[in-house]
Amino acid sequence: MIRVLLADDQQLVRSGFRLILSMEDDISVVGEASDGADAIAKARELQPDVVLMDVQMPGTDGIEATRTVVAEGRAKVIILTTFDRDDYLFDALAAGASGFLLKNADPDSLAEAVRAAAEGHALLAPEVTMRVIGRVTSAEAPAPTRPKPPEELALLTAREREVLLLIGEGLSNNEIARRLFLTEATVKTHVSACLAKLQLRDRVQTVVFIHRHGLLPADPSST
Which of 169, 209, 213, 218 sits 20 to 30 Å CA-CA off 202? Predict the structure, then answer.
């Protein structure tokens, strides 16, 4: 059973997420928090596997709460955002968030994100992935030539490199499986191998790694 803590200052939002997750046989909502400080306290008390964390909350915001929860090793954190108003995604990434999800995501995506985070493979909303990538690339000075591939790539098999690049395109494990004609279980194995060999914490760090090192072609569809 995956234990989930909901952290949002709007009770209606928490109630909606609780109702959605209550329909899943393998997920249990063990508590709710109305602000960041409360989320930290509840994470320490309830020991959830995953925290669904809003960013904009009174007092201690979701970013600071994420930083504390992750630093203490309490749980994986998925940031919940309205996207169009939220300017703090990159700060949350730096704070150790394992993934990002839009508040208007469908119920299946919410449950999938919780399961993915619990397994260490965060699910990123495609729109959020592009925003994170944009923040990373715009924050760094453009290189006059394509950067030299990192030495760690030599540790990956050819298939693992294929999977790595598809992660960089924002594809889920299921989408990668269909693209490469593999089972989803096989894809999960390759993703885990990539994370271990490249010493990356989760899928978010993987996306940043790929784009920081310029591993994707200008037109990914050309590969």
Answer: 218
